[in-house]
Write a structure and sequence with these properties.
Elements: H1 11-44, E1 58-60, E2 66-68, H2 70-84, H3 89-98, H4 111-119, E3 127-129, E4 132-134, E5 142-144, E6 152-154, H5 164-182
Antiparallel strand pairs: 1-2, 3-6, 4-5
Helix pairs in contact: 2-5, 3-4
Length: 183
């Protein structure tokens, strides 16, 4: 206020402040559009934006490549094997907790975390980009992409932890369980 010599007690200062805030908001929108465009171009080239520090099973190599973390991969393989052998996500979570295993964030396992792993295509080496979008550049809240923006699917992006046969079996069980709960 001192630098721009804005007096908030009179009408001209209030008007000036309104104009400055409108310009700042437009600048924010413009920056957001530019960032969205750059991200879209990365996705079109098949370059996902994934924080591997928060993703179980992989570490980031020196050149940005995905490297399988053997200890974490064992947990992923265990989850898939137990699921296709007939165990529920809830039972698998209980078993992992009973053996003292923790999630990547150090929490106990829950069925919803197991189901997210079972549905995540990254464990077979594929990568779907733009599953979520940021609709509002002011709040920066992201939400599920329900067709508002294109999704990009990259086959064989990295080495998978799970083979495609195991993946397909798990997806068939998940689809069957879903149709059973719908009726």
């Amino acid at each position: 206020f001192e630098k721009e010599n804005i007096n908030t007690l009179d009408a001209t200062g209030d008007l000036f402040l309104t104009i400055l805030s409108a310009l700042a908001q437009e600048e924010s929108r413009s920056i957001s559009d530019n960032i969205r465009w750059a991200i879209q171009k990365k996705f079109q080239r098949g370059e996902p934006i994934i924080n591997l520090n928060r993703f179980l099973g992989y570490d980031q190599g020196p050149d940005g490549e995905w490297i399988i973390n053997p200890e974490q991969a064992e947990i992923i393989q265990y989850i898939f094997q137990q699921f296709i052998s007939g165990k529920s996500a809830n039972k698998i979570a209980k078993e992992l907790n009973h053996t003292g295993q923790k999630t990547l964030q150090g929490c106990i396992w829950r069925a919803d975390a197991i189901l997210r792993i079972l549905r995540n295509e990254k464990y077979i080496g594929d990568c779907e980009c733009q599953k979520t979008i940021t609709k509002d550049y002011l709040t920066h809240r992201s939400s599920k992409n329900n067709g508002e923006a294109p999704r990009y699917y990259v086959n064989n992006h990295h080495t998978g932890i799970i083979d495609r046969l195991t993946w397909n079996k798990a997806q068939a069980i998940l689809a069957d369980n879903h149709t059973q709960t719908d009726h």
